[in-house]
Design brief:
By secondary structure, the protein is mainly alpha-helical. The protein folds into 2 domains: about 15-90, no CATH class; about 105-205, no CATH class. The chain has 7 helices and 4 strands; from the N terminus they run βββαβαααααα. It has a two-stranded antiparallel sheet. It has a two-stranded parallel sheet with strand order 3-4. Helix 6 (about 160-195) packs across helix 7. The longest helix is centred in the C-terminal third of the chain and has 34 residues, at about 160-195.
Length: about 210
């Protein structure tokens, strides 16, 4: 929905979708240069729309629905009603815009988030292995049981067939995650060398490439 400064009633404009690429805009109706667009940051659905509008040089405001109280607290919620409220708030300059990094930084942040997610998953699996060792009262003689000597010790443990299988499966997952995490770490490190914004995004994350 578009609202012009001199119009009392909004003019609805539907942005068509590409027939073979769902949710990707096919083209944008021609609009005066003073037209602005407001969209909500719902999942990742806003990204292709935002990028398309920006490429068309249409000023676009991304807003967090949790911060738009008139929408978040509305008893009746429909797409048309939400669009009307967004248009009213935008015209009155009452929206709190969210910062949208450049596409390159967004891509790098997604890599950083994925590395953090895989690191957390690896920790969960390692904790399962520790729990299995506790179950059989095994205490590793090595500080790092996932190092070279620790792994050799794990593979030599006398365990029931079922727990042996669980241990091997978990160790395989740790090995696979190590490979994926190292690959993402290398990608982030290379980008951070040449791009200060990537380095800043990395410093603001909860994990580090050397952790």
């Amino acid at each position: 929905m578009r609202k012009d400064a001199g119009r009392k009633n909004p003019r609805r404009i539907r942005v068509p979708e590409h027939p073979t690429r769902p949710r990707r805009t096919h083209h944008t109706p021609q609009s005066p240069p003073d037209v602005q667009v407001a969209i909500e940051s719902t999942g990742n659905l806003w990204i292709p729309i935002y990028d398309h509008l920006e490429n068309e040089h249409i000023h676009t405001v991304l807003t967090n629905p949790k911060k738009t109280r008139m929408i978040a607290e509305a008893k009746i919620k429909t797409d048309k009603l939400d669009a009307r409220i967004l248009a009213d708030l935008l015209r009155a300059n009452l929206l709190s815009p969210s910062y949208v990094p450049p596409p390159e930084i967004r891509m790098q942040r997604s890599i950083i988030r994925e590395r953090a997610r895989l690191t957390q998953l690896r920790t969960i699996i390692k904790n399962r292995i520790h729990a299995l060792l506790d179950k059989h009262a095994y205490k590793s003689p090595y500080t790092d049981i996932f190092g070279k000597h620790g792994l050799e010790w794990l593979h030599k443990l006398d365990l029931p067939p079922t727990d042996r299988t669980l241990l091997e499966v978990n160790l395989e997952q740790v090995t696979s995650l190590n490979h994926s995490i190292d690959r993402l770490t290398e990608t982030i490190a290379i980008s951070a060398i040449t791009n200060p914004e990537v380095k800043l995004a990395w410093k603001g994350s909860s994990s580090r490439p050397w952790s």
